[in-house]
Structure formats: structure tokens, C-alpha cells
Amino acid sequence: MKYQPIQNYINGVFVNASGDQHMEVISPLDGTLLSTVPLSSSKDLDNAVKAAEAAFPAWSKKPIKERVQVFFRYKYLLEQNLKELAELCSEENGKTYGESVAEIEKCIELTEFATSLPQLVTGEVLEVSRGVECRTEHVPLGVVASISPFNFPSMVPNWTIPNAIALGNCMIIKPSEKVPLSSIRLAQLLKEAGLPDGVFNIINGDATIVEAICDHPGIHAVSFVGSTKIAKLVYRRATSNYKRCLALGGAKNHLMVLPDAKPEMTAQNVAASMSGCAGQRCMAASAMVAVGQVDHIIEKICEEARKIVPGENLGAVINKESKERIEQYISQAEQQGAKILVDGRNAKVAGKENGTYVGPTVIDYVKPEMSVAKEEIFGPVISIIRTNTVDEALTIENANPYGNAASVFTQNGGMARYIIERASAGMIGVNVGVPVPREPFSFGGWNESKFGVGDITGKSSIEFWTKLKKSTIKWNPEAGVNWMS
Ligand code: NAD
């Protein structure tokens, strides 16, 4: 085993979980056993909540300008440790080193945003009557929790850690049991940055801990990122326990390609969007709606896809089950009459026979009712659906139950605007294959891609991680002025 067994992190120290149940952490790159992760119990969660509750009074009372100093140092430490963090991310998740570097750079940007929070949470004050003013303050909630998926071991935890903590909360995170190593390094860096013990805690585990988080009376807010099936369970369970909850789910992102699109640029963007992070991005293009005559662009997409080589510029998918599931989708589409233009099945990487690789796959003549057109595949696969008009393309996009992202490739500004107005997704790209909004804009989809109000990052997250206190103050109590006059 390459690393020590993973432990929980409570009150600034690494501790064993109470039971002895654990899972193996295997590298998708080559099948190496990296570590084991404990499957903690509600007793472990209880200990973490107690530590966070004990840390909350002192942490929340610090002025926000003081709290963000930790995140200036944390940002610097992320920069200093970028290479090591990226290697670890690649090892446990299977993405390429370059993709892992981009992930850590995104963590740095997220932290940079958190350091700007003092400028954004100044509250409001207004003299509402003679000598009487109303003012608002953003007040932290208390102990909050964040649950993450496997596909971004560092970035998704960092969607929530810097903002929630800088805003004065104490936090418990539950990393994906498939990629728990990166979070351990984040805890070490937060401590090195000067975060007081108990403000940040990690409880490792599976569904049992997620359920315990939703039920725990000491936890006031739950953020979740993962598949739609589990997002619904978490949202229902947390809110039924009267907690605020924001649960981000899966996606099926549609890319609409119009005949006037720039062929080279479009092909490069489509290929990069569908294959980046081995297609395991909630923002990946999964279905391409080809409007009219775009054969010349499809040819170029295939050319670009053939340049993407597993083990070189394409990482592995998370595990064997995932590889089998993705390959089954491709085979099923073939059986149903779709045409496989580039086939990524049975990909092998010399010297990494135990790695779980799927090559880039382009499937043409997909019908909207086929499973590859409707379901989230989460692999480097693009399904091309042919239509004659933009309105037909929009009907297909609107019919999908998800709503994370949609993109259009065109040189016609009016047409792009027409599609922006009608696509049913929270994040839209125009000539952009992965339309992730950058800070300070917020990240969040619509429909079955997100449950709850607001977004998880950017300015929108302030509302989620704080509550508003409104004060009405009469500064001239001796004056006989009615406060409404
Ligand atoms: P997942 O839903 O299987 O797991 C997410 C988390 O839920 C993990 O921490 C896991 O331990 C926990 N979990 C799993 N089963 C559970 C259960 N029955 N009850 C309670 N908790 C449970 O997701 P994943 O496979 O790790 O990640 C991939 C999914 O995440 C994809 O669907 C992807 O689209 C989605 N995702 C969405 C976004 C977004 O912003 N919308 C971002 C990243 C990933």
C-alpha cells in the first residue's frame, strides 16, 4: 500500500474511526492500492460535531477581515504545493497531470474569491425614518457540512470550504470514499495556514455518514454534490430535518452545432469538452445536436478525437464498473442502429494493464429515445443527434430532465441570443464547450441538476452560508418621533 491508512480529522488531529470497517482506495491509472478509507459511524460524526460546536463561538466572533487572513495563507500554500496536490489528485482520480494542475488552479481561484468576502458582506444601512435606521448583517449559521463526489477530489471540497469558513461557520466535510486522499492534504494546509482546531473536520465514509449528517441536530446546513439520485435523497432527508440544503446533481449537457460554426474551433471544443477528465465532468458535453448540414464539422471532431490517446492526453475512468458501464452504453447504441465513428471500447495502455481506460468515442445518428441520448454516461463519449432546425434542437435540449449546461456553436449573434433565451440550463456557453462561470460568478444548474435555492459558489453562496440579522435602531429615544414617521 502506497500511503498510510486514511484517518478522520477531528479538532485538528488525525484519529482512527471508531469501527474497523474500511474500503480500499485504488488508483484508476494502474490499479495500485493507494490506501484504505474508514467507513465511519454516527459516533465519529458526533465527535466531529462536538469539536466544531466548541470552535464556533471563538471563530464566528472574529471579524471577517481576520478570518480571511487564513485564506490568504491557504491560497499561498495551495500555490506552493500545487505540483504535489496535482500528482495526488491524478493518482486517486485517474485524470491527467495537466487536468489535475487545472483543478488545483481552480482551487486557488475559489480561495481568492473567499479572500474578497469582506468587500461583499458589508451589509446595508439606511435611515428609514428621522433618527431611526435599519441595518443588516450576514451572520454565520454554526456547524455546516459538505459532501462531495469523486470527480473533483480537491475542487468540489473547495467550492464550499473557503466561503463557508471565511463567513464564520465551522465545517465537517465528507469526501467521496473513492478519492479521500486530497482532502487529507487540504486539512494539513488549512492547519498550516493557521485555521484554529475544530473549525474544519473530515469524517470519511459512505451512505451511512451522509444519512447521519442529514439527521444530526447539530448540523445547520448541508451542501451536496453528486448524482441526481443521491442529491434527491439528501435534499429530501436534510430538509425534512429542517436544515437548509443545496444539492447539486448529475447532468446531460447538450451542445448545439449550427452550419455556420467555425469548424476547427468547434471541433476542438467539442472533443475537449466530451473527453476532458475522461468525460467525468458534470459540465462535459454529452449530446451534440447537429443542426442541418454539419458533416464537415463532424469529420473534424472525429479527427480531433483520434488525437486523444488513453494514458497520454486522456486519463482513466474511476473504476472497472464505470468502464464496463460506459462500454455497455456504446454497445447498446450500436445495437439500436447508431453509428460508432470513433470507438473507445477495449482501450489498453501498455504497462498499465490494470488501469481503467476508455478511449474517446463519437456516436452518430443517435435517436433522442436511445439511452445514450437520455442518460448521463460519465465517460468520454459524445452522442450526435441530427436535426433540421434550431427549434427542433431546442425541443430536444428542453426535453432532457437535467439542466446543468448547454452550449451553442455559431457565428450568428442573434441566433446565439435566441438559444440563450430558450435553452433550459443554468449555465450556457456560446462557442465555449465547458461553460463554467468563473469567480465571482456562481456555479449551479437548473431542473434535476440542482435542488435548493441559489448557487454553490460565488456571490450566491453568501446567502446559503449565512443568515441575515435585521436591526431597527432609534438613535434619538428622547425625541417624540414615531419610528414610522
Ligand atoms: P454519487 O452520488 O455516487 O456520490 C456522491 C456522494 O454521495 C459521495 O460522497 C457518496 O459517498 C455519497 N453517497 C453515495 N451513495 C449514497 C447513498 N445511497 N446515500 C447517501 N449518500 C450516498 O456521485 P459520484 O459517482 O461520486 O459523482 C459523480 C456524479 O456527481 C455525477 O452524476 C456528476 O454529474 C455529479 N456531479 C455534479 C456536479 C454538479 O455541479 N452538478 C459536480 C460534480 C459531480
Please tell me about this protein's structure.
The protein is globular, with a radius of gyration of 24 Å. The chain has a seven-stranded mixed beta sheet with strand order 14-15-16-13-12-17-18, with helices on both faces. Strands 9-8-7-10-11-19 form a six-stranded mixed beta sheet, sandwiched between helices. It has two domains: 269 residues, 3-Layer(aba) Sandwich (Aldehyde Dehydrogenase, Chain A, domain 1), CATH 3.40.605; 178 residues, 3-Layer(aba) Sandwich (Aldehyde Dehydrogenase, Chain A, domain 2), CATH 3.40.309.10. The N and C termini lie far apart (74 Å). The relative contact order is 0.14. The protein has 485 residues and is an alpha/beta fold. The protein is built from 16 helices and 20 strands. The model has no long low-confidence stretch (mean pLDDT 97). The chain binds nicotinamide-adenine-dinucleotide.
Task: Please give the structural blueprint.
Elements: E1 8-10, E2 13-15, E3 22-26, E4 33-38, H1 42-61, H2 64-80, H3 82-93, H4 97-115, H5 117-120, E5 125-129, E6 132-140, E7 143-147, H6 155-166, E8 170-174, H7 181-192, E9 200-202, H8 207-215, E10 221-225, H9 228-240, E11 244-248, E12 253-257, H10 263-275, E13 285-291, H11 295-306, H12 320-335, E14 339-342, E15 361-364, H13 371-374, E16 381-387, H14 390-399, E17 405-409, H15 413-422, E18 427-430, E19 450-451, H16 460-465, E20 466-474
Helix pairs in contact: 2-4, 3-4, 4-6, 8-9, 10-11
Bound molecules: nicotinamide-adenine-dinucleotide.
